[in-house]
Amino acid sequence: MAQTAPTPGSSSPRPSDPGGVNPWAAGGTMFAGVLLVVDGILGVIKGIAGIATDDVYARINNYVFEFNVTTWGWIHLILGIVIAVVGLGILRGAAWARWVGVGLAALNMIANFMWLPYQPIWAVVSLAIDTFVIWALCTDRSKSVV
């Protein structure tokens, strides 16, 4: 029996795509791993900058989530190291890393949202990276672990 190509807009798997694995999502997972490593390294840099000197970031008055810059530095440093390690786990194909990556990306989104007044552009870039990472890790079903 000959296989026919799906019609445009059809969601059936193509012959070159056995099992219905979405190549965009699978490639996105690899990219998500790279982005997690990069976002982790950026977090380490943010952390070191905050720990090393208190005048790198803007001073905020009367902010609900106001910590001193050194505390924010330690938060970003520790979170950045853990995120980079999980990103390496995703690149190695570790099953645990996908779901841990989703959780850490969400936690990093919360931290960067709270960090917005200190460095708005840097925080928004991290929010965008984390949004893509969560999407990519949640939509790839090639190595689905429940």
Structural commentary:
- The structure is a single chain.
- The protein has 146 residues and is mainly α.
- It has one domain.
- Helices cover 65% and strands 0% of the residues.
- The protein is built from 4 helices and no strands.
- It has helices at residues 23-52, 69-92, 95-115, 120-139.
- Helix 3 (95-115) runs antiparallel to helix 4 (120-139).
- The longest helix is centred in the N-terminal third of the chain and has 30 residues, at 23-52.
- The radius of gyration is 19 Å and the shape is elongated.
- The model is unreliable at 12-17 (pLDDT under 50).
Biggest sheet features: none
Radius of gyration: 19 Å
Give the number of helices: 4
Give the helix proportion (percent range).
55-70%
Proportion of residues in extended strands: under 5%
Low-confidence stretches: 12-17
Q: Which class best fits the helix and strand makeup?
A: mainly alpha
Number of domains: 1
Secondary-structure element series: HHHH
Report the count of strand segments: 0
Average of per-residue pLDDT values: 79
Report how far the terminal alpha carbons are from each other: 35 Å
Shape: elongated
